[in-house]
Amino acid sequence: MTMALAIIRRRARRWALNGAAAVALGYILMPLIFVIWLAFFRQEIPSFPPEGYSLKWFAAILDQRKFVDGFRNSIQVGVLATLIGLALGVPAALCLSRFQFKLRTPLANLLLMPLIVPGVVLGTAMYVFHVELEIGLDMDVLGTFYALVAGHIVIVIPWVVRLVTASLAGVDRATEEAAQNLGANPWVTFWRITLPTIRPGIVAGALFGFVTSFGNLEMSLFLVGPGRTTLPIVILQYLEWKIDPTIAAVSVVQILLIGISMLITDRYVKLARVV
Amino acid sequence: MTDTALAHAPAADRRRGEGLTAGMLIVPASIFVAFCLLAPLAILFRYSLNEFVTTKKMMVEAVTLANYVKFFTDPYYTTILGVTVRVAVTVTAVCLVLGFPLAYVVARTQSRFKHLLIIAIVLPLFVGNAVRAAGWMTVFGSRGFLNTTLQWLGLIDKPLEIMFTETAVIVGIIAVNLPFMVLSLQSVIEGIDRSVEEAAFSLGAPPGTMFRRVLWPLALPGILAGTILTFILAMNAYATPFLLGGPLFKMMAPLIYNQFTQQTNWPFGGAIAFILMTVTLGLTMAANLLIQRRRAS
After folding, report:
1. What is the CATH number of the domain that holds A113?
2. Do A218 and B141 touch (CB under 8 A)?
3. Domains in chain B: boundaries
């Protein structure tokens, strides 16, 4: 009898735990679920229950130049910032995990610092910096494409450094030393031994860097010039005036793209291990 | 956010000539970040000491603390700081309570769908705050899901005003920050050996005691990392208070943006930026010290 009671109690506790976990997961996903639902409403006003369902809002996206342009700008900035961020961040990560030197900790902190500085502060600081540069150099800086990319590189670097350093921590140096003993020079060792082993870290760093750049709002608000608005800013400015199925459809496209790219990345690196 | 890989230095290996290689590897990134981040922060700080002539809407070079004094002596601004801290503390506490069970289940599950569970938690992070705010706008609006459901159930006669309130902002930021809390906790719980829990149970500890005496102390590093991250993010929230709080509800980040772009008062905007960073760091460090002292005693 007591045994049965104990089993029941144990089951009840497990159900309570799983229930609490489900509530939290539901909470996280709720805003996305409602955005996706809204994208298929027939009427324009987000009132419940919907009068019917329709796919017309997805076609409506293409009529609005600003969404298409914003999307293209975001992709361009994200790709360029990620590539340069990798070129700068991967060697830095190699250095941080392979060498012991006096400035190691301060430099590591410097490279991770953009993660801690608030987006709005990053944006304001870069804004005044660009103003000063513009005065000092007598050329256009503020609101240019390259100034925006430079800002995005700053927020991509810490992700690359973190994830590549994490994946380097698991690499056995013996393999590299063996290669060098067998006559491989440092470059060959890097290309043939080190790079393949840290590829998951690089893929994860590139993905997180790109997604951070693609979704950045606060910093970019200060850096975009007229006609160069990125997608998150277009969405924010639209939502300031109204919420309707068109903006929800834009969001669904974004959710789909990010979801698919995460599923693909998950095949190469277990996301559970890199986040 | 603390990185074990970075916190622990590798076994020292000093060979001649490696210094040069090391330098060549790390210097470009360091110079880039220093130039694009430290220099701008330094200039912003210098600006915050300048004067602003309101009548001409112009910045005048000076070295004065007037902007900082103005912030702390005007109740309008100190109230905004107070609201921001209150929202951030509430959000962090709720995130910890809501996040722990989910983190525990994710860390302990044997299911082969675990990676999908992780993706479900991480995906919203990458979708952007504005999109998630749009979801809440659909729920909270006067003809939104919540009001329609409550009216249909006969619980209320006329729609509740939830949009543009502090409640809406808090609900929104919790959803934004919860994944960060869950991921911080989950990574630490995964590192705790399950047999430690089993041992507590087999020695007769009820689940409450096991949680308090075993799981909580062992998970403390993750709890600290998660609460710190959640708190910082809530203090700096921009899109959620902007969209769900409306024009009258003010938090620090939208205030900075407003001072910069609408008022074009760069010195004061710069001062608020540094006040926000200092208060956030100060409160984080104070909480950290408090917890460590209690742990030691």
Report:
1. 1.10.3720.10
2. no
3. 65-296
Measured between CB atoms, which of B3, B239, B276 is closest to A121? Answer: B276
Please indicate, yes or no, if residue A270 is contained in any of the structural domains. yes
Q: Which residues of B touch A161 (CB under 8 A)?
A: 29
Residue A47 has φ and ψ, to the nearest 5°, of -110, 150
User: Taking CB atoms and an 8 Å limit, are A28 and B10 in contact across chains?
Assistant: no
Tell me the DSSP string of chain A.
Answer: -HHHHHHHHHHHHHHHHHHHHHHHHHHHHHHHHHHHHHHTBSSSS--SS-S-B-SHHHHHHHH-HHHHHHHHHHHHHHHHHHHHHHHHHHHHHHHHHH---TTHHHHHHHHHGGGTS-HHHHHHHHHHHHHHHHHHHTS--TT-HHHHHHHHHHHHHHHHHHHHHHHHTT--HHHHHHHHHTT--HHHHIIIIIHHHHHHHHHHHHHHHHHHHHH--HHHHHHPPTT---HHHHHHHHHHH---HHHHHHHHHHHHHHHHHHHHHHHHS-HHHH-
Each of the 297 residues of chain B gets a pLDDT tens digit; together they read 444 445 444 444 445 456 677 778 888 999 999 999 999 999 999 999 998 887 777 788 888 898 999 999 999 999 999 999 999 999 999 999 999 999 999 988 888 888 888 888 988 888 888 889 999 998 998 888 898 888 888 888 888 888 889 999 999 999 999 998 998 888 888 888 888 888 888 888 888 888 888 888 888 888 888 898 899 889 999 999 999 998 889 999 999 999 988 888 999 999 999 999 999 888 888 887 887 777 776
Q: Which of B175, B238, B269 sits opposite A28 (nearest CB)?
A: B175
Query: Is A217 within 8 Å of B124 when comparing Cβ atoms?
Result: no
In a domain, A221, yes or no: yes
Which residues in chain A touch residue B241, judged by CB atoms under 8 angstroms apart? none
Chains A, B: CB contacts under 8 A, how many?
299
Query: Do B119 and A262 make contact, defined as CB atoms within 8 angstroms?
Result: yes
Contacts of B143 in chain A (CB under 8 A): 45-48
Q: State which residues form the domain around A159.
A: 64-274
Residue B117 to residue A100, Cβ atoms within 8 A: no
Task: State the pTM of this model.
Answer: 0.86
For residue A51, is it within any domain? no
Report chain A's terminal Cα–Cα distance, integer Å. Answer: 46
Q: Provide, as residue numbers in chain A, all residues whose Cβ is less than 8 Å from the Cβ of B177.
A: none
The count of domains in chain A is 1
ipTM for the predicted complex: 0.85
A30 vs B41, B126, B135: nearest CB: B135
Q: Which among B29, B105, B238 has the least Cβ separation from residue A111?
A: B29
Following CA atoms B211, B214, B217, B222 in sequence, which dihedral angle do they give, to the nearest 10 degrees?
-70
Architecture category of domain B65-296 in CATH: Orthogonal Bundle (1.10)
Residue A189 lies in a domain: yes
Instruction: With CB atoms and an 8 Å threshold, state whether B175 touches A27.
Output: yes
CB contact under 8 A, A89 and B29: yes
